[in-house]
Amino acid sequence: MPALQTTTTLREFVTTNFYIPPNLPLDDATSFLEQGILDSTGVLELVSFVEGRFGIAVRDEELVPSNFDSLGALAAFVERKRA
Amino acid sequence: MMRACFLLHDLLADSAGARPDAIAITCGGAAVSYRELDRRSDALARTLADAGVERGDRVMIYAENGVDAAVAFWATLKANAVVVLVHPQTKPQKLAYLLADCRPRALIANPQLPFADPAGASQHLARVLVTGTEAWTAAQARGAPPRRTAIDVDLAAIIYTSGSTGEPKGVMLTHRNMVAAASSISEYLAIRSDEVILCALPLSFDYGLYQMIMAVGAGARLVLESSFAFPIEILRRIAAERVTGLPGVPTMFATLLAMDSLAGFDLSSIRYVTNTAAALPVKHVLALRDLFPAARIYSMYGLTECKRCTYLPPGDLVRKPDSVGIAIPNTELWIVDEQDRRLPPGQVGQLVIRGATVMRGYWEKPEATARKLRPGPLPGEQVLYTGDLCRLDDEGYLYFVARMDDVIKSRGEKVPPKAVESAILEIPGVREVAVVGVPDELLGQAIRAFVVVAPGAALDATAIQRECRARLESFMVPTQIVFRDTLPRSGNGKIQKTALV
């Protein structure tokens, strides 16, 4: 799957499963935590989605903001894991 | 240990006087010394007073954990006003309710505030300050606080709690209430000035707020985390900051204990671990003892209306793992039956709490207040009828049995089923709903919604959960959706939840 498609899949999951305030533009760099889109439970839901959807296993030490706190970061992480 | 003081912010003045250069709070990359916290909150108190905030006025704080929220908290007290801390993920509808209910004179909010025009949303607001702006920097730049007019029987804070009715109730706490609670808890936890307390609980949750109050009271250091979303970051922080105190809720400890890389972190600095909001499963208690062999582990229980009822002395943990312990220092408890007669050990009845921590009542809710606060042993005294069913053993240790109403406790938060049901019923296509709590090892209780949809309505579980997220705080969103054709009803037409699970 090309990287663009990964981002699209992730965006679709996030926008359909979490509450995005109507006035918030969700770009690839928007911080999920700072913008209040995800909390700790939301992050866990996101982990189980990427594990199931992309067939990867997220290790404890990979569950960090630099991998999970924005669409762009998450897409890059997923691509690295699949490479 | 803490010195005697009348007003809550005397704790800050004392620590700023005694240890001005000690770091009071770190959060992310930011750190603030006691001198700086004192000075910034002095200046912000001046700004609030100049904006028209007077003694007894409410100041609402809508901000994530951080130095800004801390400065705003202490500044409000110094302005002789009443703090209302609101969780930064509060949804617009609930926020509008809170604004209308407590009518704050000033609002300190982060840029994510879901109102373009908060002053329009609440006519009583004289000033709105948005953190991170130039105006926010200027608001805490200089100035002396206004003259001290509050006394210890005045309100210090209103803490909103979800009751069984679904309508949030503001628990009114005086300075005396909060100083008494902080003193009592600091005493049994033996909090020292060299403590480093890690708080990943929101400051809008009284359990989180008291971490800051007790750290400041002891002149200790508070390490604030914005959330528990990335547990590995918490573990790194514990090791890097040599954290000594770790307060948590069962969900957090369950997450930590499930991690496979725990052994790679140096957790030896931890001196005490506290748990409240729901009971820890015994196997987690034992696992925590293995993980933190040098730490005292405290199992605690309480409600916002009196801050805390009981704690289990760490030495009793193995002997009485099911007990929530004994009354916190300087408070008293007993059990009554439905006729208000005191019950002997072994019998289940309602828990009553007596002491200086008992709230002043629910903000502008006299009927709800009258159900909880009733005359005590001395003339004019009021004691707290907790609404919790408990029993005592022969040694005076308390055992929690159940809430008298059916409030669900999920992720350490109270979830009134009715509030969730109301939100689901607003979704077009939903015909009926019943929400119950079901046991869940991670969450304490999981929220399960039984839903009846109208014929032809295209609603699946994901759609319902998504709609819930737009209407409810995330901890209130059901994790389980079960579709039914009908719901069982009793003779008088009420849905019979007992027949559902």
Strand and helix layout:
The complex is a heterodimer of chains A (83) and B (501).
Chain A: H1 3-17, H2 40-54, H3 65-68, H4 71-82
Chain B: H1 10-18, E1 23-27, E2 30-33, H2 34-50, E3 58-62, H3 67-78, E4 82-86, H4 92-102, E5 106-109, H5 118-121, E6 127-130, H6 134-139, E7 155-162, E8 168-174, H7 175-189, E9 196-199, H8 206-218, E10 221-224, H9 231-241, E11 245-248, H10 250-257, E12 272-275, H11 282-291, E13 296-301, E14 310-312, E15 326-327, E16 331-336, E17 349-355, E18 361-362, H12 366-372, E19 373-375, E20 382-392, E21 398-403, E22 408-410, E23 413-415, H13 417-425, E24 430-440, E25 444-453, H14 461-471, E26 480-483
Helix pairs in contact in B: 1-2, 1-8, 2-3, 7-8
Structure summary:
In chain A, 55% of the residues lie in helices and 0% in strands. By secondary structure, chain A is mostly helical.
Task: Please explain how this structure is put together.
The complex is a heterodimer of chains A (83) and B (501). With 83 residues, chain A is an all-alpha fold. Chain A has one domain: ACP-like (Non-ribosomal Peptide Synthetase Peptidyl Carrier Protein, Chain A, Orthogonal Bundle). Chain A contains 4 helices and no strands. The mean pLDDT of chain A is 86. Chain B is α/β, with parallel strands linked by helices. Among the domains of chain B are: 10-227, Rossmann fold; 408-499, 2-Layer Sandwich (GMP Synthetase, Chain A, domain 3). Chain B has helices spanning 10-18, 34-50, 67-78, 92-102, 118-121, 134-139, 175-189, 206-218, 231-241, 250-257, 282-291, 366-372, 417-425, 461-471, and strands at 23-27, 30-33, 58-62, 82-86, 106-109, 127-130, 155-162, 168-174, 196-199, 221-224, 245-248, 272-275, 296-301, 310-312, 326-327, 331-336, 349-355, 361-362, 373-375, 382-392, 398-403, 408-410, 413-415, 430-440, 444-453, 480-483. In chain B, strands 11-12-13-14-15 form a 5-stranded mixed β-sheet, sandwiched between helices. In chain B, helix 10 (250-257) links the parallel strand 11 and strand 12 (272-275). Chain B is globular, with a radius of gyration of 23 Å. The termini of chain B are far apart. The A-B interface holds A 16-19, 21, 23, 33-36, 38-43, 59-61, 63-65, 68 and B 64, 88-89, 91, 112, 114, 116, 226-233, 251, 255, 259-261, 411, 462, 465-466, 469-470, 474-475.
